[in-house]
Design goal:
The protein has about 270 residues and is an alpha+beta fold. The chain is built from two helices and 13 strands; from the N terminus they run αββαβββββββββββ. Helix content is about 15%, strand content about 50%. The protein folds into two domains: about 40 residues; about 200 residues, Porin (Beta Barrel), CATH 2.40.160. The longest helix is centred in the N-terminal third of the chain and has 39 residues.
Length: about 270
């Protein structure tokens, strides 16, 4: 009887030991699996960056150094500012151009980009070509009307007073930008420096007048604005806000009398990031 009891106790002990070992192995396996899962876990967020999606996680930082193509539909680099006429290097208009005397505080520019395509060489440098629209509004001081369908840029002096006499041009613009940016700081923002040439193709010219006698009037023509213009842009900014300056190299008008009359603009820009 005793040998049987001893044998039973031994079998029970081995069973319990085996069970304990099994539990330990199971526990180890679970722990190992947990470690692996923790190593594979990461958070993923997406940020729309001017038509460019960036994956931000621990893996993306390593991949961010690799080059990639970027682009798409966007709404960015919204420029709002003032325009100035430069007459042969001077802000003072010559007698031939005095009829274009304007109110500086109300002579403005507005533009934005809706398309872009380029290549990011790394997290700090990108080259891209964009497309958008550009408006320049010259608020004339004198009560004149720029004439349509004339061989030269001519005007008539009117016997009425205009509360608004605006002479405008609109272009499709295509900039080629070289963008430099710093690494993100703790707040997720960067400093930007963007420079590059820009070309534009005339859409139309327009005169908008408001007076007590005639009410609101609008006239459209090319008004001898350059069909093709070219220049350059510089932007500096932090986060999504910055400053811009645009200088156009060719004349505003394709007329001999206005030779040497160019345009520049400056102001604030939104949507850099």
């Amino acid at each position: 009887m005793k040998p049987f009891i001893v044998a039973a106790l031994l079998v029970s002990g081995l069973t319990i030991a085996g069970s304990g070992k099994s539990y330990a192995q199971t526990d180890t396996t679970v722990k190992d699996s947990t470690v692996v899962k923790k190593k594979r876990t990461y958070s993923v967020t997406y940020t729309l960056n001017g038509g460019e999606s960036e994956k931000k996680d621990s893996i993306a930082r390593a991949k961010g150094k690799k080059g990639r193509f970027v682009g798409g539909i966007t709404f960015t680099r919204v420029d709002l500012g003032y325009s100035r006429l430069v007459d042969n290097g001077s802000f003072t208009l010559t007698p031939e151009n005095e009829f274009l005397d304007y109110k500086g505080g109300k002579t403005s520019t507005f533009s934005f980009d809706i398309l872009q395509m380029g290549y990011r060489f790394g997290s700090n440098f990108k080259i891209y070509v964009a497309g958008g629209f550009d408006w320049t509004h010259i608020r004339l001081r004198k009560d004149i009307t720029i004439e349509r369908n004339k061989q030269t840029l001519s005007y008539t002096e009117d016997p009425i007073h205009y509360s608004k006499n605006r002479f405008s041009s609109s272009y499709v613009h295509i900039p080629l930008n070289f963008e430099f940016r710093t690494d993100e700081n703790d707040n997720g923002n960067r400093f930007y420096f963007v420079i590059g040439p820009e070309v534009g193709f005339l859409l139309n010219g327009k005169v908008k007048q408001i007076s007590d006698e005639n009410g609101k009037q609008k006239f459209k023509d090319d008004y001898h604005f350059q069909a093709f213009r070219y220049g350059g842009t510089v932007r500096i900014g932090y986060g999504g806000f910055g400053l811009f300056t645009k200088v156009y190299a060719n004349d505003i008008f394709a007329t001999t009398a206005q030779k040497g009359l160019t345009n520049m603009s400056f102001g604030v820009t939104f949507g850099l990031n």
